[in-house]
Amino acid sequence: MEWGRHDPMNHRRPQPQLGQPSASSTLGPVPEPGIAPVPGSAGGRPPAALEKEQNLLEGFRNVLAGEGRKATFTCAGRLPLVLHSGRDDTGDLTPRTDREVQEQRIVTECVRIRFGAESGGNILSLPMDGEPHEAEALDKLIQGCDQATFGRHGKDVLDETYRRAGAMGIGDFMTDFCPYKTGIIDIVTQLLLPSIVGDLTSGPQRSELAVQHDVTADQEHQIRYAVEYEICASNQSDMRSLRVSHLPSLLAILDVPLAGRAEFEEILQVFALQRTGSINFPDVFAVAAKRLHAKRLAGERTRGTQTLGPNELRRRMMFRGLRAELYKLNVYSGPHGLFKPHVDTPRSDMQIGSLVVCLPVPFEGGALAVRHQGQEVVHDWSAGMCADNKMVIQWAAFYSDCEHEVLKVTAGHRITLTYNLFLTPGTGLLAGKALSLQPSQLPLSQQMKVSCATPEFMPQGGYIGFMLTHGYPHTHKDLHHFVPNMLKGSDIVLYEAMHAVGLSSALEPIDSDSLPGHDALQHLERLHQANRRSWKNQHTEIGTHEANSRLAATEIEYEPDENSELCEEDVDMDSSEYEDVHEKTRNAPMKQRMRAREKIVWIGGGGQEELSKAYLAYGNQAELKVKYSKVALLVKVPSWAERGGSGAVASGTMGDPVSLE
Ligand SMILES: O=C(O)CCC(=O)C(=O)O
Ligand SMILES: [Fe+2]
């Protein structure tokens, strides 16, 4: 069977997957696990060439699956408790020697919880040593808890068949347990936010123009990049054909848009520009520099990735840290305590994970199962909590978009402290340790390099869409630029691998119909063209990912599935706030978006099923406008001719050009 433009039904048909019958739904199942034939690529090509291409694409799937299996999505640990340790003068239990730090040999003392009126009434000290007043304090703590609710369809619900637990908010208790002091946050940071090894580019020297206008090298990159992007977006051949009328969109790309007509007129006057005239590079530079300065003076926060220079973006990617915020104390009591499968509602668009610390109180059952991409890790803490062996604090952390559940507690009380983990700028001190990524060495980079060096691989060029396996939260259109450094597990491996190869790529929100934006490919093409131009023009070192993230709200539609007990929280969103790319996307004709989807060879798709079903919130903050987005990384594969054909260096890239040796 041939696929491609020669098939008159092609645009209406969902893309069949390798080895799978095509689905009958009108929207089609794409993207789903598996490889679709390269759209429009079959006509006239010898079967052997097609087979070679399919094998290379299949290679991506295998490598991705391997990365998925390797990638960490949850981690856990135990902290031995030392009672009456005899602190040193500083009262500090933090490891002091380098060896202790490396081995994370940390112990902790008993944990105290102060609760009751004004947090002053009662103290529970754990582990309990059998004194009657301790049992009394434990009883009081349990009595002082509210019944835990959770969010479902945007509302707080109390449903004991789904969640049976007591909850105490942070306003009602205090504890001296500290996840930083005990080293937990260090470990979780290393495991869930692997650092990326690579040099920050020093970038080219500032030009005279930049010095004259007092802009940094990063800002100079941004301006040059915006110009290239505008040239491509407006189908101009080069700078010489840019006119005054291009200024507004060029400034918008730079994230310093003109407020209105009056401002436009003012700029024309200040820079003595003719309304219908052409503009030259120094003019554009001067206007842009002035606006960037004004913005900085106004103390406005930078908005999109468009305005992040290559160094800034890499820095954010390379040095990631975590901040833990105590959220709740929960008590799951036998014989009925449980919390069925759910994902944690992100509390902000910077939330990346959740941490659960299990306090030393005996209980049975109550394992925490965490799932991602068909894999499951079960943290069973009951053994460590049995009556004669309770000298340990156990904890687990996981990406909060991963489905998890607390199995039934059959006896005793399972008392936990839960923390939300937010991304923060890290110090990068961990870089170079075993958990670091070396992007150019990643199997995915190698696979892409080999593919690009093969003439049979997408000879006319094309697009590959990798579905990310995790969901990404965000509240607001202005905040989506955090997404690249929010990437988790195997998603960051994929992103980094494509970055290392130097292909143009873009993070694209995928909506509840599994469709990308109608202009997703135009956007990617423009990036690619801009990248090529910049590369050719020696305006090097603007990474291919800098202007490319345009994630916005994606509502995840809940389709009840009788086999699933999962629920979805439908966080209320004021759609008027989302006048962005995605809004336009939503309103764009379905046909266009389907066409965009069909032009892409999809690889992977595992995460979305899980995400769309396992969508449930907990807690009492249903009003927060935070959602997980489904996201794809779209990659532009240049044609064989553009890749260098004869085996020379590919010209479709910049930064790290694909070297086809
Ligand atoms: O207690 C646990 O292990 C997990 C609790 C949980 O999933 C939650 O509070 O959302
Ligand atoms: Fe949870």
TrEMBL record:
Residues 323-425 form the Fe2OG dioxygenase domain. Residues 1-48 are annotated as: Disordered. Residues 17-27 have a biased composition (Polar residues). Residues 1-10 have a biased composition (Basic and acidic residues). PANTHER family: FE2OG DIOXYGENASE DOMAIN-CONTAINING PROTEIN, MYND-TYPE DOMAIN-CONTAINING PROTEIN. This is Fe2OG dioxygenase domain-containing protein. It comes from Oleoguttula mirabilis.
